[in-house]
Write a structure and sequence with these properties.
Blueprint (H helix, E strand, L loop, with lengths): L6 H4 L3 E5 L4 H12 L3 E6 L7 E3 L5 H10 L4 E4 L6 H6 L1 H21 L4 E4 L4
Parallel strand pairs: 1-2, 1-4, 2-3, 4-5
Helix pairs in contact: 3-5
Length: 122
């Protein structure tokens, strides 16, 4: 069995999920919480107990979350994945997808995250 599927591996792991309000992100959060992980998410429009209202293109805010929550593992699921939004505002789509990913990668490097898992949206 892979260590990342093991409940013992996830016990008390500090996990950040970008795109936590999406289908994959919300189900992933539920699964990891059942395995004992401490899960936080970032969202542009929602503030809840474990979901922080942050914009993925704001490096300082993303870096602050990773540092303050002492994140060990990040699942980067945030992206503009709809073709329509990309056609209507390609500049914003590029910023969210490229700059958002760069911000996560840089903060992960800076804070030496244990694992960074990037899920590509097509």
């Amino acid at each position: 069995m892979s260590s990342v599927n093991n409940h013992i591996f996830w016990k008390n792991k500090r996990v950040l999920i970008t795109g936590i309000r999406g289908f994959i992100g919300s189900h992933l959060a539920t699964d990891l919480e059942k395995k004992g992980a401490k899960v936080w998410g970032v969202s542009r429009s929602e503030e809840k107990e474990n979901i922080l209202n942050r914009n993925i293109i704001d490096y300082a805010k993303i870096d602050e979350v990773i540092k303050e929550k002492k994140i060990a593992i990040c699942f980067h699921l945030a992206a503009e994945s709809l073709v329509e939004s990309g056609q209507l505002d390609p500049y914003q789509t590029f910023k969210v997808n490229i700059l958002g990913t760069l911000n996560i990668l840089e903060s992960a490097r800076k804070h030496k995250l244990e694992k960074l898992i990037k899920i590509l949206h097509f």
